[in-house]
Design goal:
653 residues; mainly beta; Collagenase (Catalytic Domain); Immunoglobulin-like; 7-stranded antiparallel beta sheet; 6-stranded mixed beta sheet; 8 helices; 11% helix
Length: 653
């Protein structure tokens, strides 16, 4: 079908930067960058707009290996913090190591190559030259821009894709090449799908006012927040160049606090976190293996060659859907993670939902009309290796990643209120809007080449007792080891939830952060217990020795709410309700205890808690329900903050 009026025949620019990604749609698993696909557009319910689906950004096999040229006009590389010291040769070697990381994935046929320098005195642009440059007007650490086909297209010799007066298509070649020797690359004539990448440019931010000093030696990684390891940043940006968007994986396991390379935020003050970006995580490896699977063709780049491993000899797939338990709608923008049942490590992730957008031809932007129209389904696909996998779900809700860093499907989910749900685990036949225990989990066994279907989530219909507003800051970096943080939940709040009915007290949720992103957010203890306050409420006594529920060695979350799932929500609900009725329970307390010093990480900081307050005008009142104790005996009220701890309840079946 021809493109609608007002849409260029050739391409649409889709940027992806370290702190924000382009559009993304999850129907293909994981997190691909996408292009609006105008091939099969339809009338939109919105006046002046059309409805269009999304196409995954990808390199056509005729464009492999993908040749990149490094801009050679800046040598040494600019250093906004002082004298320049990094040679172009050393920077080029670091970029080559980043490419090698992606090229050496045995189950993926993606292939990135350096093809010599380019002498560009200006900024990179759409010129059929995949350029890597340290000359940029962006203030971000790194930026990846792709120009893609916006609809299926038959490219013929003479097509001037970049409109420079020179043909960018040749019928004399079968893989792209610089046919006329002018420095840009021509495409072989033929049919190409929407989403085909035509040109990709990567910018590294060296602006004098807010750019970064790039280093390449391991010893060069330091705590200066405007100094960053080039190889790690290049590895991330090259992930965008092959069509990957950001993921939410920022804490591998209880033993490894590092994030996946495609997590959107980099702690430039943590040398260990900077250097960890160089090494691809299992999540980073699974997605390009799924998108560019080795052994998926009899000839060409996707055919097995020396050292290659067929995708389906290593990976299987988990397929399912996500439905919102309250709205009864398919969910766009849920992140699903596969966690190794035996090790607790996050292996891979995917986003839910197939989305179509309403594109305004005059404004040149996309919008959403209704969930029924824009969210076509809640499907997801997870590539995993052989093993037993627990499945966890969380919303793209700003913690730890905002919707803008993921893409259109998460934006659709946010627009329709679908991302208002709590984290939970998939529990097989017990899955439903009202569950006996949201922390129950049923593992899924997968063998290579196998597809496990029917892993369908229904988000829990729960109520959170939250006596706080938005997070304004975090605390407390100077806290001594062993400190207790406690939040009082008055018995009256629990009694007010479905009075006269049985309730399930499902979990506690603690907003936690780490000062160094390479560290694990580990607390000595987390608990729900009882207690009481003095007449004025200035101090509290908390029953630490007789908790209702407690976990020792609580692995919390890095910049997110960490759930403490209770073992028997029904029995706990009955016990608490009876205790309140008899006057034996006047207050519940959610408690976190810090581990003992010394604390890990370059900052030597304890794990932190999310705080609401500290402002002249706050979004909610300071409720006076947050307490601190350094001895476990007397808890003193914090007068200027609300700790962001909440108690999660649900109705009983």
């Amino acid at each position: 079908m021809r493109a609608p009026a007002g849409i260029s025949k050739m391409a649409r620019i889709v940027p992806a930067v370290l702190l924000a990604a382009g559009l993304a749609a999850p129907a293909w698993a994981g997190g691909p960058l996408v292009t609006i696909d105008f091939a099969d557009f339809a009338p939109s319910p919105l006046p002046g707009a059309i409805t269009a689906k999304l196409a995954r950004n990808f390199w056509d096999t005729r464009c492999l290996p993908v040749p990149y040229r490094i801009n050679g006009t800046l040598d040494p590389i600019p250093n906004p913090l002082g004298a320049s010291f990094l040679s172009l040769a050393d920077a080029t070697a670091a970029v080559q190591r980043s490419m090698t990381a992606w090229n050496q994935i045995p189950t993926s046929y993606i292939d990135l190559r350096l093809a010599g320098p380019v002498a560009n005195p200006g900024f990179p642009g759409f010129d059929m030259k995949n350029e890597i440059s340290f000359r940029t007007f962006f203030g971000s650490i790194g930026t990846s821009f792709s120009v893609t086909l916006p609809f299926d297209n038959q490219l013929t010799e003479g097509d001037d894709l970049d409109r420079d007066g020179d043909s960018d298509v040749s019928s004399a070649i079968t893989t792209w090449a610089d046919v006329d020797g002018d420095g840009d690359f021509e495409f072989p004539a033929g049919f190409y799908k929407a989403g085909t990448i035509l040109d990709n440019d990567i910018h590294f931010g060296t602006r004098p006012d807010r750019g970064y000093r790039f280093t390449v030696a391991e010893a060069g990684a330091d705590t200066n927040i405007r100094s960053v390891d080039l190889q790690g940043v290049a590895t991330h940006e090259l992930g965008h160049s092959i069509g990957l968007c950001h993921v939410l994986d920022n804490n591998k396991s209880a033993a490894d606090g590092n994030a996946a390379t495609m997590f959107p935020f980099l702690d430039t003050g943590d040398p260990a976190a900077e250097l960890a970006q160089r090494t691809l995580d299992s999540d980073d490896i699974a997605l390009p293996s799924y998108f560019y699977p080795e052994g998926s063709a009899a000839s060409g780049p996707a055919a097995l060659q020396g050292g290659d491993v067929a995708f389906d000899s290593v990976y299987g797939l988990i397929q399912g859907t996500v439905t919102h338990g309250l709205l009864n709608q398919p969910v766009a923008g849920a992140s699903i993670s596969a966690i190794d049942r035996d090790t607790g490590e996050v292996f891979s992730s995917a986003f839910s939902g197939t989305v179509q957008v309403d594109y305004d031809l005059e404004l040149g932007d996309y919008f959403f009309d209704s969930p029924e129209h824009n969210v076509l389904d809640g499907r997801f696909v997870l590539p995993v290796k052989k093993g037993n996998w627990e499945l966890a779900i969380e919303p793209v809700d700003g913690s730890p990643v905002p919707v803008g860093s993921v893409g259109a499907f998460a934006e659709a989910g946010e627009a329709f209120g679908q991302l208002a749900f709590n984290e939970e685990l998939w529990n097989g036949s017990g899955e439903g809007a009202v569950e006996e225990r949201s922390g129950d989990s049923k593992h899924v066994h997968v063998n290579p080449g196998e597809i496990q279907t029917g892993v369908d989530f229904v988000t829990n219909r729960e109520t959170a007792l939250r006596n706080f507003g938005s997070r304004d800051t975090t605390g407390f970096a100077a806290a001594p080891g062993g400190r207790y943080y406690a939040v009082r939940i008055p018995a009256s709040q629990v009694s007010a939830f479905l009075p006269g009915q049985d309730v399930l007290i499902q979990s506690g949720a603690f907003d936690t952060v780490v000062a160094d992103r390479s560290t694990v957010p580990l607390f000595a203890q987390a608990m729900l217990t009882t207690g009481s306050v003095s007449g004025s409420g200035a101090t509290a006594t908390v029953a630490l020795g007789d908790p209702l529920e407690a976990v020792t060695g609580f692995v919390a979350a890095d910049d997110d709410f960490a759930p403490l799932y209770f073992k028997s929500p029904r029995n706990l609900g009955k016990k608490v309700r009876r205790g309140i009725e008899k006057g034996e329970i006047t207050d519940l307390f959610l408690v976190l205890r810090l581990p003992q010093a010394p604390f890990p990480g370059v900052s030597a900081s304890p794990p932190l808690v999310g705080l609401d307050g500290g402002n002249a005008a706050n979004d909610v009142p300071i409720h006076g329900l947050s307490y601190i104790s350094d001895d476990g005996m007397t808890f003193t009220r914090v007068e200027n903050f609300n700790f962001r701890f909440s108690l999660i309840l649900s109705a009983a079946n």
